[in-house]
Fold this sequence. Notes:
Elements: H1 3-9, H2 15-32, H3 41-44, E1 50-54, H4 64-72, E2 75-79, H5 83-92, E3 99-102, E4 117-121, E5 124-129
Parallel strand pairs: 1-2, 2-3
Antiparallel strand pairs: 4-5
Amino acid sequence: MLAPWINRILPHLNKATLYGLVGLQDWWRSVRDRSGTAWPATLATQRGLFFVHVGANRAGVNDPIFRQIVLRGWRGILVEPQEEALAHWQRTLRHYSGLHYAQATLAERSGEQDFFTSNRRRGYPTGLRR
């Protein structure tokens, strides 16, 4: 419900506010849902891990890697071929060190290839574009 609105304001928040917002959301999830987390218990509490996030898309409060960066200081590489989406990560996490951004894709062979994305209108896919 609130996630789309929150995701729009993320790049404008300072580090303390971002931490508080994601921490509050984690607390609310723990109260609401006792089923656990998407992460194995050993990873969910680890601080300072290194990751490679392929297909990062846009930073958002529901992205599990985003949450770990903010709450536990994970460091790593975010790989995303779309310039706008990668720039959103960079703006949103500008206060966090140890992050590297790569505008790239993974493929069987090197060189240029077609890449398709969805056209979006009000958050819903409306078709494909090259």
